[in-house]
């Protein structure tokens, strides 16, 4: 029975995959981006289950695209195949990245920027995951140059790709450079496809300004998320932004404003079992109560912080907790 169920699932995935690429014929990228996203999700599942069948489908997709004279869809099939191989084998066999590099160069030569950009971004992620940061930044610079020439309306992935560049600079503490990328992403018009990426950009832009000591602009970024009344408002991100705004008030010594925001962040984090996020707000709360000489409350928050850090496994958060404990 289990075998029959597995075969049926694979068959349904295959059927959906075929229908998806047939619906993409001669369509501009922005009109087929959601179909492409689902295609990749389905194909990853199929490739893990049966790589031979997955490769066969990418071949059929490419052949069908050629027969219907859609050169862009032909290259999409090549990108899909290269991506699947990288997704499954890229970490253990880094040499498979050559397939994506080939596709990137074809995208450039054939003047199909979204193909080139998506391949280049994946190549940058590949080297970043391998901690080969020198090569990663070479490809990041290329992806940034490509994005500068692209119309966001024609490339719905713009926010996510800008965020990736920004996060790489953020990782190394280059907050000023990170700001330029997050600012561009945060100002993009939200759609059903990019709303989460734009919201993430607004939040991380606020964190960059926080690191740079510009609390006015930092607060503005967080309030964009908190005060969002559109259909794209996200309660989880609202809670995260509220906690970050509360941390700004904490840093500025405005404890009365900070406390309710940090408490709300903890409640929201626990609802989604994000214990790392919860510990991020219990630590400044413990310090606030310590400074207010509310020692019992401070001890409660210290104990909570230790519990949440242990549950999350994010031991680097002890760097902020230990100084509070030592007081």
What's the mean pLDDT score? 93
Structural class: mainly alpha
| Discrete helix count | 16
Largest sheet: none
* Outline: elongated
User: Which percent band covers the strand fraction?
Assistant: under 5%
CATH class group of the domain at 33-150: Mainly Alpha
Give the low-pLDDT segments: 1-15
Oligomer: single chain
Helix content: over 70%
Number of extended strands: 0
CATH topology description of the domain at 33-150: Serine Threonine Protein Phosphatase 5, Tetratricopeptide repeat
Termini distance? 62 Å
Order of helices and strands: HHHHHHHHHHHHHHHH
Taking Cα atoms only, what radius of gyration do you get, to the nearest Å? 23 Å
CATH architecture of the domain at 33-150: Alpha Horseshoe
List keywords for this structure.
single chain; 327 residues; mainly alpha; Serine Threonine Protein Phosphatase 5, Tetratricopeptide repeat; 0% strand; disordered N terminus; Tetratricopeptide repeat-containing protein
Provide a brief overview of the structure:
The protein contains 16 helices and no strands. It has 327 residues and is mostly helical. The protein has a domain at 33-150: Serine Threonine Protein Phosphatase 5, Tetratricopeptide repeat, CATH 1.25.40.
Task: Walk me through this protein's architecture.
- This protein has helices at residues 2-22, 29-49, 51-67, 71-89, 97-109, 113-129, 133-148, 158-171, 175-186, 195-212, 215-226, 235-251, 255-271, 275-291, 295-312, 318-326.
- It contains 16 helices and no strands.
- The protein has a domain at 33-150: Serine Threonine Protein Phosphatase 5, Tetratricopeptide repeat (Alpha Horseshoe), CATH 1.25.40.
- It is mostly helical and 327 residues long.
- 79% of the residues lie in helices and 0% in strands.
- It is elongated.
- Residues 1-15 have low confidence and may be disordered.
- Helix 7 runs antiparallel to helix 8 (158-171).
